[in-house]
Every structure is written in structure tokens, then in C-alpha cells.
UniProtKB/TrEMBL annotation:
Homohexamer. The gene is coaD. It comes from Rheinheimera pacifica. GO terms for molecular function: ATP binding; pantetheine-phosphate adenylyltransferase activity. The lineage of its organism: Bacteria, Pseudomonadati, Pseudomonadota, Gammaproteobacteria, Chromatiales. This is Phosphopantetheine adenylyltransferase. The record marks H18 as: Transition state stabilizer. Keywords: ATP-binding, Coenzyme A biosynthesis, Cytoplasm, Magnesium, Nucleotide-binding, Nucleotidyltransferase, Transferase.
Length: 160
């Protein structure tokens, strides 16, 4: 049986922490779908199409990784994709508490979907999309936090 996993997120922007989890998940699962959530309530810096394109560029060389934008309930999207596993990144205890609630809700909505929590590599534990945007917005160097094409896209957004 081939195992299909979904790694969902807003990815606004995609960070090296996200990329690390996708690369590691691609070694574990037969297929990994990076599911880019529309999530307009978060007022993303990048449009859904831009975030999908940035993620696609980041994972071009990994044959079992695909990138798809989506809106609506993640549990339904996972069922539509015939995914069995939901991957969630957990950096700290506070992340775990929130992710545990989400995993429980997703299990109620889609009992066939199991959640797996992955921790980032130690060098990426403090990176968040929110922090990356703030550092870049104020002219700081984000080159060690995001792929180079994402850094360029951030600079263009902030007109740096």
C-alpha cells in the first residue's frame, strides 16, 4: 500500500524549516502533497498563487512531492486527495497543544486520516514565517531562514 501524506500550511512565506520537513517526509512517505492553504483570515503577504509557485520552485527536484493550493476544510481536502497521513511541524510545547487539538478535530472529521508530528532540525526550531517577514520588512538578512528565491520574492514585496 502506498502512503500519501499531506503537509498543510499557509507557507507565507515558505521557510527552510518547512523545506526541511518536506524533504524528510519525502524519504518516509511514498507521496507528499504540500497543501498551501488559502487562509484569507491570516491576511497573507503573498497571494495563494504566489505561495504555490514559491513552494513548487522549492521542491522541483523531489519527484514524490507535489504542491497544491486549497481552501476549505483540511479534512475534506485530505479525503479528496486520498491521503492517509497529515504531517504537522511542532517547534515547541505551545505548538503541540494547538496541533493536538487540530489532530483531534481532523480525526473526528476524517477518521481515516492520522496525524504525524515532526520536529524541525535544531537549526530551524526558532524560524517562523511571521518572524521572517518582520526581519525582512525592516531590512534584515533572511538568507539563512528561507530558500534564495523566497528571499528575492520577499525583497520584491517589501521593495528592498
Amino acid at each position: 500500500m502506498k502512503i500519501k501524506a499531506i503537509y498543510p500550511g499557509t507557507f507565507d512565506p515558505l521557510t527552510n524549516g518547512h523545506a526541511d520537513l518536506v524533504q524528510r517526509a519525502a524519504r518516509i512517505f511514498d507521496q507528499v502533497i504540500v497543501a498551501v492553504a488559502a487562509n484569507p483570515s491570516k491576511q497573507p503577504l503573498f497571494s495563494l498563487d504566489e505561495r504555490v509557485a514559491l513552494a513548487q520552485q522549492a521542491f522541483t527536484g523531489i519527484s514524490n512531492v507535489s504542491v497544491i493550493g486549497f481552501s476549505g476544510l483540511l479534512a475534506k481536502f485530505a479525503a479528496d486527495q486520498s491521503a492517509q497521513v497529515l504531517i504537522r511541524g511542532v517547534r515547541a510545547v505551545a505548538d503541540f497543544e494547538y496541533e493536538f487539538q487540530l489532530a483531534s478535530m481532523n480525526r473526528q472529521l476524517n477518521p481515516a486520516l492520522d496525524s504525524i508530528f515532526m520536529t524541525p532540525s535544531e537549526k530551524n526550531t526558532f524560524i517562523s514565517s511571521t518572524l521572517v517577514k518582520e526581519v525582512c520588512r525592516h531590512g534584515g538578512d533572511v538568507s539563512s531562514f528561507v530558500p534564495c528565491h523566497v528571499e528575492q520574492a520577499l525583497k520584491a514585496k517589501f521593495k528592498l
